[in-house]
Write a structure and sequence with these properties.
It is a single chain. This protein is of the alpha+beta class and about 230 residues long. It folds into two domains: about 80 residues, Translation Initiation Factor IF3 (2-Layer Sandwich), CATH 3.30.110; about 110 residues, Alpha-Beta Plaits (2-Layer Sandwich). It is about 35% helix and about 35% strand. It contains four helices and ten strands. The strands form two sheets. Strands 2, 3, 4, 5, 6 and 7 form a six-stranded antiparallel beta sheet that branches. Strands 1, 8, 9 and 10 form a four-stranded antiparallel beta sheet that branches. Strand 9 and strand 10 form a beta hairpin. The longest helix is centred in the first third of the chain and has 31 residues.
Length: about 230
């Protein structure tokens, strides 16, 4: 065998050895990458509502439509005055056009209605003054002295500053996911590696209970996949 053939054989052998080493490392790496654990991390916050929509309504009835309209205007002014003198901004008050029921045009027999016309008026307060609205809700009986029998419909409380707490909550959810993954790794006699993938769940905002709708619970669950090492 000549010198050139010997050198070629040596180079081929070294190349095959290096190739084999790369293949082994690749297989080991693939095996390592296949060892993962998927965990979920929960984060919760209890917050106070910062915006409220407060719908109210009342009705008036009579047979003289122009006089009924004048009466309605006077009652609207009393309601608006009650709200504004007690801290609600006028621009946060919406007085909707009345809905009219004409008993005569809807008469199909039987006893006639006592009054021909019925007006239903809706007034809505939309404001960030949540505490003030809660205070005034307990004082609506004061309007009875003014001749206004107000009905309060469902009051809607909202938390509008979710973006302010999102980063901290996502960080907490990821931290809690890592704690769960650490425990799993310890139980399986492994070491926790880097994050492979992570997905942020949907944020939810719910009432803490039926009696305190102004207090909200914000919740998010993140799903995180970690590598496991020997």
């Amino acid at each position: 065998m000549n010198r050139t053939s010997i050198i070629s054989s040596i180079i081929l052998a070294v190349g095959l050895g290096i190739l084999g080493l790369f293949i082994k490392c690749g297989i080991d790496n693939f095996s390592y990458r296949d060892r993962i654990v998927t965990v979920r991390g929960l984060a919760e916050r209890t917050v106070e509502a910062d915006y409220v929509t407060w719908p109210m309504s009342y009705g008036v009835a009579g047979n003289d439509l122009p006089a009924l309209y004048e009466r309605m205007q006077g009652l609207n002014e009393k309601v608006v005055s009650f709200l504004t003198t007690n801290g609600i901004d006028k621009e946060d008050i919406s007085v909707n056009p009345p809905s009219l029921y004409n008993a005569e045009s809807n008469y199909y027999g039987g006893d006639r209605a006592k009054y021909q016309y019925n007006l239903n008026i809706n007034i809505t307060v939309s404001t960030s003054k949540v505490a003030k609205v809660r205070e005034l809700q307990s004082r609506l009986s004061e309007l009875l002295k003014e001749g206004v029998a107000i009905n309060t419909n469902y009051v809607n409380y909202e938390f509008t500053h979710l973006n302010d707490i999102k980063p901290e909550m996502i960080a907490d959810a990821t931290k809690n996911a890592r704690l769960a993954a650490d425990q799993f790794a310890a139980d399986s006699e492994s070491k926790l590696g880097k994050i492979k993938t992570a997905s942020q769940g949907q944020f939810s905002i719910e009432d803490t209970d039926a009696n305190t709708p102004q207090t909200k619970k914000v919740r998010v669950v993140s799903s995180v996949v970690f590598y496991l090492e020997d």
